[in-house]
Design goal:
Elements lengths: L1 H27 L7 E5 L3 H7 L11 H20 L3 E8 L7 H18 L5 H5 L2 E5 L7 H14 L6 E8 L1 H15 L8 H7 L10 E4 L18 E3 L10 H27 L2
Parallel strand pairs: 1-2, 1-5, 2-4, 3-4, 5-6
EC number: 2.5.1.-
Family: Belongs to the UPP synthase family.
Enzyme class: transferase
Length: 274
């Protein structure tokens, strides 16, 4: 009986929270709602140290586990708000330079969490979302690479919003591959146009990000979406990624709405002068 009572209370709280978010997002929708938000999920390891989580050699990914819970909540809020595209920077090519045991632990965690995203009660299932993995996937361990491919294949026909995970990724690597692909397509001595590179980017067919958020107060893009970010509103809130919450997301959208007119005007002026 006690368990049933707790379950009913939890469901009731969840329903009230959903109704309150729905009202909040309805008010936000009076202004322009971003179609694409990208996140640099910075601060997982610092969060683990700050909160004295178990961060030893047997479990170096403890902060990332908390960060994954934050990702799921943030995805739900974005999709409820009407954001069509969410892109996250999960693992840089440079991260392979870390301690091999830590890298292996993160690969294992990545596979586990991709599998979780494919379960019946996952946020992807709830919103009929499609998932992409962008990066040099050949650098991933085979189990992670196969799981990522399985996830893309299983969601490729979904009609809802899109989650793109940048893994084994840097923007310079993406641009290099786009140049190489464009050269292969062209006849000898034919010029390569910007449109050729756009077509061969991982992000082809996806809207450019309206907002790029890097948590933990850092202001660097760290080789993330450099090609696609010329008109993105860059934000660097102080919370570490596992601390990022609904109020931070709402504030980010309000800041974007405050500068949207200026960004739209500047983009129009530049495109007009091309």
């Amino acid at each position: 009986m006690e368990k049933n009572d707790k379950s009913m209370i939890t469901k009731a709280i969840g329903h009230v929270s959903f109704v309150m978010r729905k009202c909040l997002f309805s008010i936000l929708s009076i202004g322009p709602v971003p179609a694409h938000i990208a996140f640099i999920m910075d601060g997982n390891r610092r969060y683990a140290k700050r909160h004295a989580l178990h961060q030893d050699s047997t479990n170096p990914g403890s902060g990332h586990r908390v960060g994954f819970k934050c990702l799921i909540s943030t995805l739900q809020y974005c999709y409820e708000m009407g954001v069509k595209y969410v892109t996250v920077y999960a693992f840089s090519i440079d991260n392979f330079k870390r301690d091999p045991q830590e890298v292996q632990s993160l690969m294992d965690l990545m596979k586990e969490k991709i599998d979780e995203l494919l379960t019946e009660d996952s946020v992807l299932k709830k919103f009929d979302a499609r998932i992409n993995f962008w990066g040099d996937l050949q650098l991933l361990s085979e189990p992670v690479r196969l799981t990522a491919k399985k996830a893309m294949d299983m969601t490729v026909h979904n009609k809802g919003p899109v989650l793109s995970v940048c893994v084994a990724y840097t923007s310079t690597n993406e641009i290099t591959h786009a140049i190489e692909a464009s050269v292969r397509e062209k006849q000898e001595n034919a010029p390569i146009e910007v449109s050729d590179l756009d077509r061969n980017m991982n992000t082809a067919g996806c809207l450019e990000p309206d907002i790029i958020i890097r948590t933990s107060g850092e202001t660097r893009l760290s080789n993330f979406l450099l090609w696609q970010s010329d008109f993105a509103h860059l934000q660097n809130p102080n919370p570490l990624w596992p601390e990022f919450s609904l109020r931070h997301l709402v504030w980010a959208v309000l800041e974007y709405q405050n500068v949207h007119g200026y960004l739209k005007k500047r983009k129009g002026e530049i495109e007009k002068n091309k």
